[in-house]
Design brief:
Blueprint (H helix, E strand, L loop, with lengths): L14 H9 L1 H13 L4 H22 L4 H23 L8 H22 L3
Helix pairs in contact: 1-2, 1-5, 2-3, 2-5, 3-4, 4-5
Length: 123
């Protein structure tokens, strides 16, 4: 497998995508899926928003915030499948720590890295 063209923490390499990934990751995620699978970005964006926003809201309301990891796990399960598709498409290494854990621990950074990878490869 090949190395990624930029590291997981290289968000400052592309400031516009860094800001979008940090403040509204659902939009950047949707755009990534659009580029990767050549389909409209709105559906994946809304699904991301629902998984993140709705599940976070429920966890806060029902468990007083003690189960916030559930929200992160839901969005990570959804996002890691697309990361694997991207890795398979470009024969990329499973780094830094597997698709699920990368999104669980560093979701905004992972979405930004995936964007930069596709941009660097001209897709």
């Amino acid at each position: 497998p090949l190395r990624w063209t930029s590291g997981i923490c290289a968000c400052s390499d592309d400031i516009p995508s860094c800001c979008l990934g940090l403040f509204c990751p659902c939009i950047l995620f949707g755009r990534n899926v659009e580029t990767l699978e050549d389909r409209p970005w709105v559906g994946p964006c809304v699904m991301h928003l629902l998984l993140w926003g709705a599940v976070t809201g429920l966890c806060c309301a029902l468990t007083e915030g003690t189960a916030l990891g559930v929200a992160a796990s839901c969005v990570s399960c959804y996002a890691c499948g697309y990361r694997k598709t991207l890795r398979d498409k470009y024969n990329l290494e499973d780094a830094p720590c597997g698709d699920f854990l990368t999104h669980l621990c560093c979701h905004p950074c992972a979405v930004c890295q995936e964007y930069r990878e596709m941009k660097e490869r001209g897709t």
